[in-house]
# Entry
Amino acid sequence: MKLRNINRGLVLGGVLALGVVCYTVYDNNQFKTSKPEIEQTMRDYIADLTSANVGSSDKLKSQLTDFVNKHYTDYTTSDNEYASSKSGLLDEINQAEVAVQGGDITSAEYDIKEMSINKSGADGAKVTMIYNVCYDVSKGDPTFLTTNGINTMTSGNYTNSDNYEPSKSSYKAIFSYEYAEFYLLRTSDGWKIATSSDYGYGEDYNFDDNNSDSVADESKAESEIVPDSSAENTDSKGADSVE
# Structure
């Protein structure tokens, strides 16, 4: 009788273990099929983030608000205390003095250099990216949105030119994001960003109006150009890798 009970327990345990293995394999395979959608979600995110920062300051707050509402989902729990959530970004945008800044971003380029996509939880994904953005600025030091919230350009710290006047001089602002991290959730509307963060960025300013180099790369083939907030992007996947 005892042997029969033991055998029954072993059988049930084996069935349970087999079920867990089968579900894990199925879940991983399902996630693999989602990778192209997640990749496109992140490409659209960077394109729209760059575009949302372009335009006159009186429209910037509404553009940034629309961007956050489109790409982020409500999320309150995060292991990363430095990550930005939908509610946090909206609060920053509402409090920022974007409507009274001393200059506008007139056009922009971005270059997604690397992208890594990994499963995180039952319906989540972790994406890490390396990308560059180059903004053309009409004058002054505009505020702009990043994955970590609102920042302000500091062009005056990067030139010793006697001819530089913040209220008049135009320039290119180049930002290099070497490690940006995103946590995504699968929702009824597709994959949305729960939290986003970066660990600082390289910052450089070019005051030579004749310099038309792309976003810190000799080749322009992988760049996306955003001439204004309504521009059409040409997608190129050559420089981006998905693991």
Observations:
- Helices lie at 2-52, 57-71, 86-95.
- Residues 209-243 have pLDDT under 50 and may be disordered.
- The CA atoms of residues 84 and 196 lie 5 Å apart.
- Strands lie at 105-119, 124-137, 143-146, 149-152, 171-187, 190-198, 202-206, 224-226.
